[in-house]
Design goal:
The protein has one helix at residues 56-63, and strands at residues 4-7, 10-13, 47-54, 72-77, 86-91, 106-109, 122-128, 138-151, 154-156, 159-162, 164-177, 189-204. It is mainly beta and 221 residues long. The strands form three sheets. The chain has a seven-stranded mixed β-barrel. Strands 1-2 form a two-stranded antiparallel ribbon. Strands 9-10 form a two-stranded antiparallel sheet.
Length: 221
C-alpha cells in the first residue's frame, strides 16, 4: 500500500543495502522458522476484505518526497487465527504489467518486473502473523503464477479512483522476502492455488505525519 515495510517491529526502507555483519558460527545459527502455511490451496478471504485507492493528494505529497504509493489495492485475511495471515494485491500505474500507463482489466502472467519488490506494477504478497496492531511478522512475495483482473477502479482525475476492484489468482507461488534484496528468494515458501476477491474501492490517506500501525508497502525511488 505505502512506502515502508514493518518487519518484526523494524521499519525498513525497501531499497536494501547496508553493511554486512560478521557471519555467526554455524553452531549458533538458529533454525529457520517459516510463518506462512506451506499452501493455502483453494483459498478464500475470511475477514477484513477491502479495496483501497490512495487519494491524489496523498500520492502527490509522497511523490514529492521520492516515494511511490499504490494507485489501487485489495487486502484480506486468509485465515481466522489469533494472528492471521493476510493476502494483499497492490497495483501501480506505470510499473510492471501497467508500464504503458493506466491499470487495466485482463489476465496477466507474473514475470519480469512484477517479480521485483521495487519495480512491480502487479504486486502480489502475503503478510503473516499480524499482531493486534496489524503489523506483520514476515512478508512473502510472489515468484510465479497468474492474476486476472475482472474489474478495476476508474480514475477520476484529481480524486481517488472509484468503483470495484475484483479478480482472481491462479497457482501463485511465494517466497519469503527478508528485506535484503529486490526479489523474494528465501527458503520459506508458500502457495495459493486459487483465490477470488472483490470489493468497492475506498479512499485511503495515511501519510507519515504519524507512523501508521501497519506500514505494508514496498517501494522507494
Amino acid at each position: 500500500m505505502d512506502k515502508l515495510f514493518a518487519l518484526g517491529g523494524l521499519m525498513i526502507l525497501a531499497c536494501g543495502g547496508g553493511s554486512k555483519a560478521p557471519s555467526p558460527d554455524a553452531a549458533s545459527i538458529a533454525p529457520v522458522v517459516c510463518t506462512a502455511t506451506s499452501t493455502y490451496a483453494a483459498a478464500s478471504i475470511v475477514a477484513d476484505g477491502s479495496a483501497y485507492a490512495f487519494t491524489f493528494a496523498e500520492i502527490t505529497a509522497d511523490g514529492s518526497n521520492g516515494l511511490v504509493d499504490a494507485n489501487q489495492g485489495f487486502a484480506g485475511d486468509l485465515n481466522a487465527d489469533a494472528m492471521p495471515d493476510s493476502f494483499e494485491l497492490d497495483l501501480y500505474e506505470g510499473f510492471g504489467a501497467f508500464g504503458s500507463g493506466d491499470i487495466s482489466k485482463g489476465s496477466f502472467t507474473l514475470s519480469g518486473d512484477d517479480l521485483s519488490f521495487q519495480k512491480c506494477g502487479l504486486c502480489v504478497q502475503i503478510y503473516t502473523d499480524l499482531d493486534a496492531d496489524g503489523a506483520p511478522t514476515d512478508l512473502y512475495f510472489a515468484t510465479a503464477g497468474s492474476v486476472t483482473l475482472s474489474a478495476v477502479g476508474t480514475p477520476t482525475g484529481s480524486d481517488v479512483s472509484t468503483g470495484t476492484l475484483a479478480g482472481s489468482l491462479s497457482n501463485i507461488a511465494f517466497a519469503q522476502w527478508d528485506g535484503s534484496g529486490d526479489a523474494a528468494i528465501g527458503s520459506c515458501r508458500s502457495s495459493i492455488a486459487s483465490l477470488s476477491f472483490s470489493a468497492t474501492i475506498e479512499p485511503v490517506a495515511d501519510g507519515f505525519d504519524d507512523v501508521p500501525t501497519r506500514i505494508v508497502a514496498h517501494r522507494t525511488r
